[in-house]
């Protein structure tokens, strides 16, 4: 049910769909990730990467194998669609920061997983960087690369992500969520990633068509964070209150 909600409400959270119809009056409603070959072909790999990362951090026996698979998946994303792999990189960095802050006593386990992912991704980034270095000099102008350090704070995925973070903070305060539980950290990382991808230019000084993040991945990340957070809040800390399938079906 959550997956259906995430996939079907992407246009709404991207400011398209019904929002666009109300604002402009023109018919511009669609499922964004199905726009064309890219991003539809590599789109599933993003969430495969998230799943493999989850397995690597929560498996007691095969963490290295899961991390290696996650790194390979990220490597495939690097050669697929720029906005997907950079969002994946931003997400795993965000997750790593949250993980190390909340698991100070067991940080070595997480370090092995994140280091494995980083090394495999670096191996893919080297030939990618070589290819990019040979691009045409006119490509940056054609792709509308902007040199700016200005923040970008009011896109809908960012605002929804902040709402999710507020819900998680409220759940922690009400003792319905454990602040350092892996599922809480994952929901938080999904919610924070949109703000990171839309404001990375504050540090890098370069912004490349950020609406691609808004339409094709940041909106789905914010929705995924919302679905996970709401599910966790409903179940509570002990996970003793399941969601009935009939209720979930009616929501969809």
Describe the structure.
The protein has 252 residues and is mostly helical. Helix content is 71%, strand content 2%. It has a two-stranded antiparallel ribbon. It is globular and about 60 Å long.
Total strands: 2
Shape: globular
Q: Residue ranges: pLDDT <50 for 5 or more in a row? A: none
Tally of separate helices: 15
Run of helices and strands: HHHHHHHHHEHHHEHHH
Q: Quote the average pLDDT.
A: 87
Largest sheet: 2 strands, antiparallel
Distance between the termini: 6 Å
The helical percent reads: over 70%
Indicate the structural class: mainly alpha
Whole-number radius of gyration?
19 Å
Strand-residue proportion: under 5%
- In spatial order, strands of the major sheet run 1-2
Lay out the secondary structure.
Elements: H1 2-8, H2 10-13, H3 17-24, H4 37-40, H5 43-58, H6 63-78, H7 82-102, H8 107-133, H9 139-142, E1 145-147, H10 156-173, H11 182-199, H12 201-204, E2 206-208, H13 211-216, H14 218-235, H15 245-251
Antiparallel strand pairs: 1-2
Helix pairs in contact: 1-14, 5-6, 5-7, 6-7, 6-8, 7-8, 7-11, 10-11, 10-14, 11-14
Give descriptors for this structure.
mainly alpha; two-stranded antiparallel ribbon; 2% strand
Short description:
This protein is mostly helical. It has 15 helices and two strands.
């Amino acid at each position: 049910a959550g997956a259906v909600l995430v996939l079907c409400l992407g246009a709404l959270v991207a400011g398209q769909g019904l929002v666009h119809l109300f604002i402009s009056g023109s018919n511009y409603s669609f499922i964004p990730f199905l726009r064309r070959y890219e991003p539809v072909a590599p789109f599933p790999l993003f969430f495969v990467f998230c799943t493999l990362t989850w397995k690597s951090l929560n498996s007691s026996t095969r963490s290295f194998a899961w991390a290696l698979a996650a790194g390979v998946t990220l490597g495939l994303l690097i050669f697929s669609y720029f906005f997907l792999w950079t969002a994946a990189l931003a997400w795993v960095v965000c997750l790593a920061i949250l993980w190390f802050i909340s698991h100070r006593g067991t940080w070595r386990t997480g370090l092995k997983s994140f280091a494995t992912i980083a090394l495999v991704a670096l191996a893919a980034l080297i030939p990618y960087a070589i290819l990019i270095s040979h691009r045409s000099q006119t490509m940056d102008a054609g792709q509308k690369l902007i040199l700016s350090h200005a923040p970008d704070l009011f896109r809908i995925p960012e605002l929804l992500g902040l709402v999710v973070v507020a819900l998680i903070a409220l759940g922690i305060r009400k003792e319905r969520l454990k602040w350092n539980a892996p599922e809480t950290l994952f929901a938080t990382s999904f919610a924070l990633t949109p703000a990171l991808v839309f404001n990375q230019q504050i540090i890098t000084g370069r912004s490349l068509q950020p609406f691609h993040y808004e339409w094709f991945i940041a909106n789905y990340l914010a929705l995924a964070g919302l679905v996970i957070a709401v599910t966790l809040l409903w179940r509570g800390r002990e996970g003793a209150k399941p969601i009935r399938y009939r209720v979930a079906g009616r929501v969809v």
